[in-house]
Structure formats: C-alpha cells, structure tokens
Write a structure and sequence with these properties.
By secondary structure, the protein is of the alpha+beta class. It has helices spanning 56-64, 155-169, 173-192, 198-227, 251-255, 261-274, 276-282, 310-331, 350-363; strands spanning 3-4, 10-11, 22-31, 34-40, 46-49, 89-97, 100-108, 120-123, 126-127, 140-143, 244-249, 293-298, 303-304, 338-341, 367-371, 385-390, 393-396, 404-406. Strands 10-14-15-5-16-17-18 form a seven-stranded mixed β-sheet, sandwiched between helices. Strands 4-3-6-7-8-9 form a six-stranded antiparallel β-sheet, with helices on one face.
Length: 408
C-alpha cells in the first residue's frame, strides 16, 4: 500500500503504488558556471543557498531544460555553455517515476561538432526526435523573480505564461503555436511583398483559422482547470495566497464562448481575408490568438491584479503557480510536477513562508527553493535536503558539513 511520508510524498508500497516523480540524481557538464556537478537527491524539497551570483538559478535552469522548450530564461541554447568550455553543454538526470528510474539527458555538442542550433535529447540512451518527448515523462513549473512584474507588464509576457500552463495539460499546444507562427510569417511576407492575389492567401489563412481556433480552445480549457484549483480559502480573507479570478481576452477566445468552434474558425478565416489591406498598412497580422491576454484579478478584493501592491501581486502569483501545480497533479493522475521557486522566500514574511512550506508539503512535489539566507528555510530543516552553492560547486548544508559532493 502507499504510505504518506513525513515530508508529504507518497512512497511506493508493496503493491507498487505510485509516488510523485522526483530527480534521484542531477548532473551538469559545462553548463553555465559549472564545469561538472553531480549530486544525489530524494523526493523531499531541495533548498539551495549561497551568495548572489554563485549559480543557484543556473541549477534551476538546468532542470527546466529537461522539459520541452527553452527553459526558464528562454535563451538561445548556445548561451547555456560555460564561457571557458568548448561551446557544448549537457544536463542529465535519473528520474524516479512510478518506482522506476528513467534516464533523461539533453545538451548541445561542442561548437566545432555542432551541425545545427538545436539541442540533443536522449531518453534511456535513445535519441528522441525533439524535446517534446520530455513532456511525456516530466512536468516542471517555475516561479522566478523576472516574473514578479507579470500582472503589470506587457500582454505578451502573460500570454507566454498562459501558454506554458496550457502546454502542461496539452502536449500538442507548443506544436500548434509553432505552426501558427510559421503560417502567420508566411502571410505577413505576402503582405510585405504587396501580393494582391486572393488565392495566395486563402490556404494560409485557412490554416491559421484552424490552428488558431484550436489554440484558443486549449487556452479556455486550461483556464477552466485552474479555476477548479484557485487556492480559495475559507473565508478567503484569511488566506496567505489569495485566489485569482482569471479571464481571457481575445477575439477567438471570446467568440468560443458564444459559438461552436467550426463557426469561429470560419469567422476568423473571413476576418483575415477582410483585414488584408489594414494588415498590409500595419505591416503585420492584427487579429488572432497571438494578441490574446490573460487578465487576473485579486479574488478577495475583486481588484485588477496590476493595481494591487507589490506584496499582494507576489502572493497572488504564488497562489496561481500553486493552483497550477495542483491542477497538473490532478490531470496527471495524482503525479505532481517538479516546482522551481527561485528566491521565493526573501520577500515573504514569516507567516507567508510557513504557509508556502505547508502548501509544498501538501502538494508532495519535489520542490526546489533558492535563497541567500539558509535561516529563512529553517522550518524545512527536517523535511528537506539542503545544499550550499559556491562558484560551481555543491556541498551539503543545514548540518554544517564541509564535505563537497562535487566541484568544478
């Protein structure tokens, strides 16, 4: 039978019951400021402490590369290589999944051997066709300081945030986004060339209408999932992390609330045809899922998130990420995603830190937390693994041990 351990994770029982996925080992080679780094892990939360610039976020970034996409910083793959290395880099992990170990690996070859700008992905030693295959094994969610201005920033940032959430439920979402982007670039090119023949646009616009409607429908479904896990406490005013009221703004997203998808698709194709001259003047396509926005309100106050205080926005964002993690866990049959929380505790008071640690316990996910001060994570001392990060090396923390696990 499955047993709930003291740190909130479901351990495997004699009947082979599932436990939340976790990285049992993480290894880096020529990644950012790490020449080589490898350390063993279990399913408990992981706390990484060290001075600013020591490389804590780099470790979180390496974990994010074990999923589809460009990771938490969304930079070109070549930028991940160590400056004094040969231009290549590698990240590998032993993933504990349902009691079995799966070997995940990704990286880019040395610059002299590189045939393309993409990255290599291997699963149990076999090369995968794309990074999308990683999503079948591991889901990773993150919250980093760069996201603190999400609610008051440009809509493009909220749209990217939304699409990452959608992709955690729908593995085909990234592919649709890429297909739509390629088709839209083709249409924009025709506009730039001052092409006037309708037949040159029709096939492209039909493709954009089909894919764009599917993108909008997937976003609507994802938001509905999140609303089921909105962190609403009882009464709401007492919650450390207020629930969020979510709404989608967008031509297709709003239309799908009123019409069948087939009608929305036809309407969008017609709008694209009718807007060619306006789009030609603007130099780009002005209507479509690439212009949608995620609007967020502070639930207990019923106030737009962008008008809330900095502290309220941070608490609201944490609540939204935790709600997302719960929704992913539910969608994946009880298997929680990994959580990466960079510099998460520094700007929370003691009560909110305790509430966050309790939420992590309840979720049962292998959660990675970073900070400069080990003391703020003291409530986790008996429930987490602690590591000290310093200049490309990792050492055990919390118990004052000086033994280095790996050095660069």
């Amino acid at each position: 039978m499955a047993v709930l351990t003291s740190h909130g994770c479901w351990a495997n029982g004699d009947d082979g019951s599932a436990r939340n996925p976790f990285l049992a080992r993480l290894s880096l080679s020529n990644f950012r400021n790490y020449a080589r780094c490898s350390f063993a892990l279990d399913g408990r939360p992981v706390v990484l402490t060290g001075r600013n610039g020591a490389g804590k976020t780099n470790i979180l970034e390496s974990i994010s590369m074990l999923t589809p996409g460009r990771g938490l910083r969304s930079v070109p793959f070549a930028d991940l290589a160590r400056l004094t290395g040969d231009g290549g880099w590698a990240v590998s992990a032993h993933l504990s999944l349902n009691g079995d170990l799966v070997n995940l690996g990704t990286g880019q070859q040395a610059e002299a051997m590189r045939a393309a700008n993409g990255r290599i992905v291997r699963i149990d030693g076999e090369q995968a066709g794309s990074s999308g295959a990683l999503g079948d094994y591991l889901q990773v969610l993150w919250l980093i300081p760069a996201m603190d201005g999400l609610f008051a920033g440009p809509g493009s940032e909220r749209r990217r945030f939304l699409d990452r959430m959608v992709a955690s439920f729908d593995g085909a979402h990234r592919r649709r986004l890429n297909q739509f982007e390629r088709a839209m670039r083709q249409r924009n090119r025709l506009l730039e060339m001052n092409e006037r023949a309708a037949r040159m646009f029709e096939a492209i616009e039909s493709q954009m209408a089909e894919i764009g409607t599917a993108i909008a429908a997937a976003r609507i479904e994802a938001v509905a999932r999140l609303r089921s896990f909105d962190m609403r406490p009882a009464p709401p005013e007492t919650g450390a992390f207020p629930h969020a009221l979510l709404a989608l703004e967008g031509t297709l997203e709003e239309a799908l609330g009123e019409k069948p998808a087939v009608d929305v698709e036809d309407d969008y194709a017609r709008m694209l045809a009718e807007s060619r001259e306006r789009d030609r003047a603007a130099g780009r396509t002005l209507i479509g899922p690439h212009r949608a926005d995620l609007r967020v309100r502070h639930g207990p106050k019923d106030m737009p998130a962008e008008l809330c205080s900095t502290g309220e926005q941070k608490a609201l964002l944490i609540g939204l990420v935790l709600a997302h993690a719960k929704a992913v866990k539910d969608a994946r049959g009880g298997l929680a995603p990994l959580l990466l929380l960079d510099e998460i505790a520094a700007h929370l008071d003691a009560l909110r830190r305790e509430a966050l640690f309790e939420e992590i316990d309840q979720l049962g996910a292998q959660t990675w937390l970073t900070g400069t001060d080990e003391a703020v994570f003291a409530p986790l001392r008996e429930r987490a693994q602690f590591f000290i990060i310093a200049d490309g090396s990792v050492a055990e923390g919390a118990r004052r041990e000086d033994r280095h696990l790996s050095t660069g």
